[in-house]
């Protein structure tokens, strides 16, 4: 049994979903595990992780439309507004999605379903460097 | 340290929560681990995983009522509507719940709390074959 | 490769977020792992886990305000009301947040980001004893 870990950095340029599937699969393949468990972890509280459809880009548009309506920017409900009207909504969107994700590795492949992609969800308007840790254990 | 994995298939016949606790516990017991970590992973973007109360079935009714109101089918907000009015809501419900779940194994048992059950949440109206991967690592 | 597990108990006295970061870090450090994966699991269906900002306490106030508005207590939509008007909302808030969380351990430290804290989210009004399992695997 062995383990490996790696940190990837994603430069974001505004609020949207960023497909990180290629980077994750490339690293997982290079790590050489046949069977195991891959865990992704994002080290932020205003960006999150999500597995969703990566075929029709309209899905990503609709996800964003939904979250914008569900958690309105500049909502007078919020008192934590130091960094602007997208500050507190970013924390709430993070709470409603994922900070960690685990995916089995089978037959040397990350066992994503046919339509599944792995996304970093940037919830802030401004550009950020987002760090995602990948950890795999298995053999 | 060892690991095992297994794929279960759940035939769904409409939108609701399906209790998969018995299948998960049966497989976990047969795998013979005394201590370890069990991870469940659903390979879909319109069905998800959830741990919630499995005692009073009214909880499942209310969960569904809530999600139907929160993410209205046929909402004109959505542009990804190719597969019908439950298409995009299914992706959003998946984003709001879980694609992966990890539960420790202690003293040979999956360490669920007293009232916890493990559910597959089917978000589409039509019947589907849903695949859930189970992975356990430990000894 | 080794594993350890431990159960912590958190006495809650009402609905709010409880910062459990110190207890988690203390145990993780004492377990002596240099590299590995830490998993937290809450054995309840009306309390959940969340990673969010632990710097400005206003973030916690706003998270609670948001969830109170999103899932209204005493909503006539709900039929599972045996334990009061916060009963079913507690199950829904649990579904919308996390029951399990996994965080890599690197260089002997739980790899939280700079502003990340780990919280138990108590969703019931009354006092409860909440059990959280911690499991670490690695070396």
Distance between the termini of chain A: 5 Å
Order of helices and strands of chain A: EEHEEHHEEEE
Mean pLDDT of chain A: 98
The secondary-structure class of chain A comes to alpha+beta
For the largest interface, the chains and their residue counts are: A-B, 35 and 32 residues
> What share of residues of chain A is helical?
10-25%
Biggest β-sheet strands, sense, barrel of chain A:
5 strands, antiparallel
Q: Quaternary state, please?
A: homotrimer
Low-confidence stretches of chain A: none
Number of helices of chain A: 3
* Global morphology of chain A: elongated
Count the beta strands of chain A.
8
Describe the overall structure.
The structure is a homotrimer of 139-residue chains. The first copy, chain A, is α+β, with helices and mostly antiparallel strands. In chain A, 24% of the residues lie in helices and 42% in strands. The first copy, chain A, contains 3 helices and 8 strands, in the order ββαββααββββ. Chain A has helices at 21-31, 58-70, 87-96; strands spanning 2-13, 16-19, 36-42, 47-53, 100-106, 109-110, 116-122, 127-138. In chain A, a hairpin with a 2-residue loop joins strand 5 and strand 6. The longest helix of chain A has 13 residues, at 58-70. The model of chain A has no long low-confidence stretch (mean pLDDT 98). Chains in contact: A-B, A-C, B-C. Chain A binds chain C through residues 1-3, 5, 37, 39, 41-45, 70-71, 77-80, 82, 88, 91-92, 94-96, 98-100, 102, 131, 133, 135, 137, and chain C through 1, 35-37, 50-53, 56, 58-59, 61-63, 65-66, 69-70, 96-98, 101-104, 106, 111-116, 137-139.
